[in-house]
């Protein structure tokens, strides 16, 4: 049997509009129908399911329990149909809008996106640095790069990596105290982003007692790119990910005095709505970024013993 005979799609479209507006007349205006036609479609649907959907009260329409149970699934179904139509209408040239956490955007994506565009010249890219969590129901993003523990059940989530980190500072700052030879030497210097939990993880990984860093308030940055810039300027020691600063380490603008990297459960994730998982431009970006980040980690990160994600 054809889907159109089993599922009265037009009547469901009318039902969704009436339930959303709480009004037959406003639903009719939105759909370009008469109020009589709207009432007919609702009666048709009620006959199809064998239950009443709306209580007609003076000056208002009230959803029944049956309507309340139906509505979320009907809305989701029309969202999927909308995605299918958008997919069918895509042209050869399209734009992929990426919302990314600031440091990943400035210190990895911006440096590597050119390779993606060479592989996919028909896809234009719009990259936005964002500090807030992207709301795909409201924001125009196609995908987002999120920093956190994850995964999140309401989204498709691809773990790009849990990156290693270590204290880094300018060589001039290290020389100012006669060199940094043991973890306690770091406490003689300003600690950048001292409230970040990474500092506790690193000292614990080094077998050291976790120090009290509450007095280090001058450079209390949250974003790592700000911490890195402060470290490069010689303002203190920052806990930085190796993947973001390979060139600075290779050139000697930054030094990482200790060869024991650390890591934790926080990762970088590619996220997007479940309904978009088969969108060609998103599939292309997912395949490219997963491979590119994995290759860059092999190049930039020191090995971590007993860490399967290193």
If you had to describe this structure to a student in words, what would you say it looks like?
The protein has three domains: 3-88, Winged helix-like DNA-binding domain superfamily/Winged helix DNA-binding domain (Arc Repressor Mutant, subunit A, Orthogonal Bundle), CATH 1.10.10.10; 94-162 and 266-300, Periplasmic binding protein-like II (D-Maltodextrin-Binding Protein, domain 2, 3-Layer(aba) Sandwich), CATH 3.40.190; 165-251, Periplasmic binding protein-like II (D-Maltodextrin-Binding Protein, domain 2, 3-Layer(aba) Sandwich), CATH 3.40.190. Helices cover 43% and strands 16% of the residues. It contains eleven helices and ten strands. The strands form three sheets. Strands 4-3-5-10-6 form a five-stranded mixed beta sheet, covered by helices on one side. Helix 2 (9-21) crosses helix 3. Pfam families: HTH_1, LysR_substrate.
List keywords for this structure.
single chain; 310 residues; alpha/beta; Arc Repressor Mutant, subunit A; D-Maltodextrin-Binding Protein, domain 2; 3 domains; five-stranded mixed beta sheet; three-stranded mixed beta sheet; 11 helices; 10 strands; sequence-specific DNA binding; transcription; WH_DNA-bd_sf; transcription regulation
Helices and strands in order:
Blueprint lengths: L2 H4 L2 H13 L2 H8 L3 H15 L4 E4 L2 E4 L1 H24 L5 E7 L1 H18 L3 E7 L13 E6 L7 E6 L3 E4 L2 H5 L15 E2 L4 H9 L18 H9 L4 E5 L4 H6 L15 E6 L7 H21 L10
Parallel strand pairs: 3-4, 3-5, 8-9
Antiparallel strand pairs: 1-2, 5-10, 6-10, 7-9
């Amino acid at each position: 049997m054809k889907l159109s005979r089993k599922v009265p799609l037009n009547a469901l479209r009318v039902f969704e509009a009436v339930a959303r507006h709480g009004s037959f007349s406003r639903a009719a205006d939105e759909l370009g129908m008469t109020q009589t036609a709207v009432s007919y479609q609702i009666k048709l649907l009620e006959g199809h399911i064998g239950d009443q959907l709306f209580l007609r009260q003076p000056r208002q329409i009230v959803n029944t329990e049956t309507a309340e149970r139906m509505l979320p699934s009907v809305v989701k179904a029309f969202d999927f149909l909308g995605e299918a139509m958008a997919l069918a209408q895509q042209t050869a040239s399209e734009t992929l809008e990426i919302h990314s956490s600031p440091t990943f955007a400035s210190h990895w994506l911006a440096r590597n996106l050119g390779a993606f565009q060479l592989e996919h010249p028909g896809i234009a890219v719009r990259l936005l640095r964002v500090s807030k969590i992207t709301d795909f129901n409201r924001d125009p993003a196609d995908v987002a790069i999120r920093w956190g523990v994850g995964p999140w059940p309401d989204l498709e989530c691809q773990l790009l990596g849990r990156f290693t980190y270590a204290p880094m500072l300018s060589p001039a700052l290290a020389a100012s105290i006669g060199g940094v030879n043991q973890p306690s030497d770091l406490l003689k210097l300003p600690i950048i982003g001292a409230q970040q939990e990474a500092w506790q993880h690193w000292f614990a990984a080094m077998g050291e007692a976790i120090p009290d860093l509450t007095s280090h308030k001058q450079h209390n940055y949250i974003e790592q790119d700000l911490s890195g810039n402060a470290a490069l300027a010689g303002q203190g020691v920052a806990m930085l990910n190796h993947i973001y600063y390979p060139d600075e380490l290779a050139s000697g603008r930054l030094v990482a005095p200790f060869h024991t990297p650390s890591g934790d459960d926080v990762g970088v994730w590619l996220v997007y709505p479940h309904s978009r998982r088969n969108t060609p431009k998103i599939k292309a970006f997912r395949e490219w970024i997963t491979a590119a980040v994995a290759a860059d980690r092999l190049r930039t990160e020191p090995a971590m013993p007993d860490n399967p994600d290193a």
